[in-house]
Amino acid sequence: MLKNINDDLEKILNNFIEKAVIINQNGFVESTYSINKLKYFVEYDVLNIIDDNSNNSIKINLNQVYKIENEKDKIIFYLDNDTTVTFSLKR
Length: 91
Known about the structure:
Layout (H helix, E strand, L loop, with lengths): L1 H12 L7 E6 L4 E5 L2 E6 L2 E6 L5 E5 L3 E7 L2 E6 L3 E7 L2
Antiparallel strand pairs: 1-2, 1-8, 3-4, 4-5, 6-7, 7-8
């Protein structure tokens, strides 16, 4: 299943490369921050999102993701620990 998530995720994230993104995390920890020029890579089943212009970053263990929703200009990751992480393109 992780292979399918990685393949689908790559297609989705390619639309976000080098764009400005707002990241919202909701659950037991809540936060909001921005990525000005998104870059990503997957290493050891961990999605690494980095900002090419700053030190902002986020890592998501894909083994904890049970669902991904893709809307126009938005990705929502649902994690096992009742956390959601949302990537939205800045307008």
